[in-house]
Structure to design on (202 residues):
């Protein structure tokens, strides 16, 4: 499958970069010690971390699926099916994380409500972006290898941009006291490990 294989490798690399986004909600932070009331913030952090953990695994699995497809001599049809499912899983995962953050409410820190609202909007935006990539993938012409490769290249470019941007609100949400509380949650540590497994580090 010359022509599409190298492009799908780029796609896999870009997708694994997308896992970095979820780290902002996985306690992957160096935060400093704080005197904040740990009970309420700890409860909030546990609720968010418990919501993130299974979704981080789903994101990591989606990345692994695409990476595996690049090591096989896959047909365009196989690549399309695998990648489309991976994008759907990514979209669903970010939507679920958004719902988890929304359910948890605002953390009791300065501007907590605004930070939570911005993070929810950002997560929903990321979810929508992956859903859009899935539609593009489903629309590629698998019968024409050259056109399919061009289509993959375009998707890889968009995915690369998505993986490098769009997590500012998440970083703001988990900064400082919130980040400290999250690093103490076992589920956040587990989520961080899952999300960073493909090609990233916390």
């Amino acid at each position: 499958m010359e022509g599409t294989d190298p492009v799908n490798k780029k796609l896999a690399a870009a997708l694994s970069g997308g896992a970095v986004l979820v780290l902002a909600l996985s306690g992957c932070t160096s935060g400093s010690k704080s005197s904040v009331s740990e009970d309420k913030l700890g409860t909030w952090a546990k609720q968010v971390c418990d919501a993130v953990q299974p979704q981080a695994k789903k994101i990591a699995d989606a990345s692994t699926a695409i990476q595996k497809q690049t090591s096989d001599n896959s047909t365009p049809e196989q690549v399309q099916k695998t990648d489309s499912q991976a994008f759907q899983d990514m979209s669903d995962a970010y939507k679920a994380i958004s719902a988890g953050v929304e359910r948890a409410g605002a953390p009791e820190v300065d501007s907590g409500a605004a930070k939570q609202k911005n993070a929810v909007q950002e997560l929903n935006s990321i979810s929508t972006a992956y859903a859009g990539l899935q539609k593009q993938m489903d629309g590629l012409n698998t019968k024409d290898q050259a056109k399919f490769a061009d289509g993959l290249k375009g998707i890889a470019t968009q995915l690369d941009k998505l993986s490098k941007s769009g997590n500012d609100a998440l970083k703001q949400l988990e900064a400082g006291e919130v980040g400290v509380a999250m690093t103490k949650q076992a589920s956040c540590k587990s989520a961080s490990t899952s999300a960073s497994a493909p090609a990233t580090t916390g």
Remarks:
- The chain has a mean pLDDT of 78.
- Residues 38-71 form the longest helix (34 residues).
- The helical segments are 5-23, 38-71, 76-104, 112-138, 145-164, 168-173, 176-183, 186-196.
